[in-house]
Every structure is written in structure tokens, then in C-alpha cells.
Amino acid sequence: MVNEERLQKVIAAAGVASRRHAEVLIQTGHVQVNGQVVTTLGTKVTSKDEVMVDGVPLGKEPLKHLLFYKPRGVITAVSDPKHRRVVTDFFEDETVRLYPVGRLDYDTSGLLLMTNDGEFANMLMHPSFGIDKKYVAKVQGIPTRLDLLPLKQGLTLDGKRLAPAKYNILSSDKKKQTAIVELTIHQGINHQVKNMFKAVGFPVIKLAREQYGALTLQGLQSGDYRPLKPAEIADLKALAQKG
């Protein structure tokens, strides 16, 4: 008897995309099975079926794990219908298909992981796991520690209770009425940092993610990337499992 697997699981296991992104690829017509476009989630395939993604046969690509310094003004996606610049534009010399782990907003810069390792990506993005992510925000207004106390206590936004965050006021500019605040969170909700600061009355002007677990942007310029070291990959997996 030939074992059957769900198509999105097979694509993720091959290192082409995370399972969630594989589902998007299927639904948007990027996947063919035995020469026919398949858009139905839950379709099952066997090792005898020929699966292609964007015309490329599914094969076991060498796994890559990269640390990328995402610039502002770049979409965290593999493509964009409006033809705006996307993160994968920076990896055209790479021979494997890469995709981002999580996301950073269009106008947010900083540390972003890129990989073709679906298991690794799923582990880091799973809601039950939590790896610390450190952001530095320029905010409108000059907050006191008391003003930001709700961030530490845990806010409720759109009916969702957020985990307590750590913060540190780095500097302030009384003339411009702005401040630089460091915020550490371990969740990954869309626009979370911006919405947290907005909720306490200090909207974000500029935002950067400077640390992910123990990883930093040291030695990189905006638009640069480097491979993760084996020890760094092992540390991230350990953090995710511990979370």
C-alpha cells in the first residue's frame, strides 16, 4: 500500500514553503500534480505523483537558514501583485526557494529570518511557542515609565489579551517631543508593537526589530544577509521548544 500525504504537508516537508504558505500556493494556482493545477486543500498525493511548484519539480533542496536585515519600504512576501519590492528580491543569487519566517511591516526595518526549511519555520511561528523579539521604536510624545506600565502588565487589544512586555526608555527629545523606546515581546500578532504603543497614547513614528532570540544585526548593513550558524539554529529550536 502506498502512503498518502496531504499536498501542503508534502510541499512543506520538501522545504519549499511553510505549511501555511504552501496552502496559499495551492489556493492561488501555483501547484500542479501530474501536470494538472490543483487548488483544493486537503488533496492527497503519494511518492508516485509528480508535484510541481511554479513549474519546478518538487525535490529535496538543501536546507538554508538566513538572517536578513530587511530595509524599510520592502514587502515581507515572496511576490506582490502591485510589483512593489519584496524580500525575496534580495536573494536572486540563491539557488533554493526562500520565504520569510513571520513578517515585518512594509515600513518596519530589521531582523528577519529567511529559510526553505518548513519544519523550522513552523516551529518558530507556532502560536504556542514564544521567542523574545526586541524592537526599538521612535514614538510621538515623551512617555514616563508609569505611562508605559500597561505594556508590562499586559494589554487587551481587539478582545485579545497580550502577554506582558518588557520596555526601556532609551532617550527623549523635548524639542521634537519624541522618544526612543526599546520593547521586548514574544508574540507575533500583526502590527502588535504599533498597536501597543498607540493604545497607551504614543504612536510609532519609526520602528526596527533589532534582536530575535540571541540573534542581532551586528555586522550587517540594511539589505545584507548571512547564513545562520549551526549553533544558532540549534539555539532557536531549543528556545521554541522551551517556549
UniProtKB/TrEMBL annotation:
Pfam families: PseudoU_synth_2, S4. NCBIfam families: pseudouridine synthase. Gene3D superfamilies: Alpha-L RNA-binding motif, Pseudouridine synthase I, catalytic domain, N-terminal subdomain, RNA-binding S4 domain. Belongs to the pseudouridine synthase RsuA family. InterPro entries: PsdUridine_s_RsuA/RluB/E/F_cat, PsdUridine_synth_cat_dom_sf, PsdUridine_synth_RsuA/RluA, PsdUridine_synth_RsuA/RluB/E/F, PsdUridine_synth_RsuA/RluB_CS, RsuA_PseudoU_synthase, S4_RNA-bd, S4_RNA-bd_sf. Its EC number is 5.4.99.-. The lineage of its organism: Bacteria, Bacillati, Bacillota, Bacilli, Lactobacillales. Residues 5-64 form the RNA-binding S4 domain. The keyword Chaperone does not apply. Keywords: Isomerase, RNA-binding. It comes from Lacticaseibacillus yichunensis. GO terms for molecular function: isomerase activity. This is Pseudouridine synthase.
